Amino acid sequence: MHSQHDSLAAQRLAQISRARQSVLADGDAVGTGESYPLGMGSDFDWIERSWRRCMAQGLRPEQHVGFDLVSAQQMRRVREVHRPLVEAARPVLQGLGRATASTRYFAILTDADGVVVDTAGAIDHSDARVHSIARVGVDLSERSIGTSAISAALSERHPVWLHRGEHFFHDTSVYSCAGAPVFDANGRCTGMLDLTGVDAVERPELRHLVARAARHIENALVAGVPHRLLLRLNWPGQWDGGDGDGLLALDAEGWVTGANQVARQIVSGLAHAAGALHVEELFAAPVHVLFDAARRSTHADASVEIPLWSGLRVQIRAQIREQKRAQWAGEDPSPDAVAHADPALDAPQVALPLKDLELTLVHQAVANARGNVAQAARALGISRATVYRKLGRRQPER
């Protein structure tokens, strides 16, 4: 078994060497030519793009890599700006350290510029090759160390696996690494998470591990933004119960304060929003329905189905952030202090104005019709144009 594995590993390194020769020495494109089976079955294009960017900067593989630290002033700024990222990632990094303890891989967290902001795992600082990259403040961007999982994840915006000679410089060809970008609650790439080994056995499955870990960090970042209501959402019948669910944070009036990448994929309006966004622009239901769902919940698994404006339906579990009790106790609510609030603390004690009641009925009719405006109009006994006008939306042209 070992001899077979060694043979496959040797073949893999030989394929990498031929690909390097094609691009770096001869200038030929291999992404559309020779089949180049990367460990995860992806194509070669993104590696080739990175190699060519390095060459366009006048870099050559034989050049020495300095693994330079950024200035102390820049590092102070990085630490201040990325404190929420570091705090959200710390328990995840510790978990990665335990998961990779026997593999000679360790974890690195960088900001969006590729500067290391934290590390974890079995890091042997007596090995200069390990010490060079596993230091807070070292610049691991593409402009500094060429092609790596770090630079690739930041430029390609998706998880990657990179092995030995797939790195641009000879100095970095001792590394094997998996990387995944980390997005903040506003959908911006705020950094990346990396697992690196030195002269280690190829472990392409680490790409899955680092991608899941990055998603966990993103969820912690969403839970950490100011919010009153946290929605966990997924398609009906597809509850993940963890990092595979969408997270959407709302303030007390229903304005979106944050969302994870899964939510942005499920609810298209999140991905295309240019400014402030209200939840009623996403769901064909009034915001009070979401708060009511949270108040009626009697256990963690309680959920409701809510229609999107597209007519599709999503399943939602809503939780109210318990702010008042924490303030009465003289404590600030932590990012994870999300619980069902007592309805008596949060429910409005005044009657709705007639205009608001009318709008609520329109929203509820559209929700009951699963986003079908024509059906909702018939149920209400009014025209489609009136429904669109009440909702503040333009009626589509026929």
TrEMBL record:
Instruction: Identify the domain of life.
Output: Bacteria
Q: Which Pfam families match?
A: GAF (PF01590), HTH_8 (PF02954)
Cite the GAF domain residue spans from the record. Answer: 85-221
Locate the DNA binding HTH domain: which residues? 354-392
Q: Which InterPro entries match?
A: GAF, GAF-like_dom_sf, Homeodomain-like_sf, HTH_Fis
Task: State any single GO MF term.
Answer: sequence-specific DNA binding
Q: What is the name of this protein?
A: GAF domain-containing protein
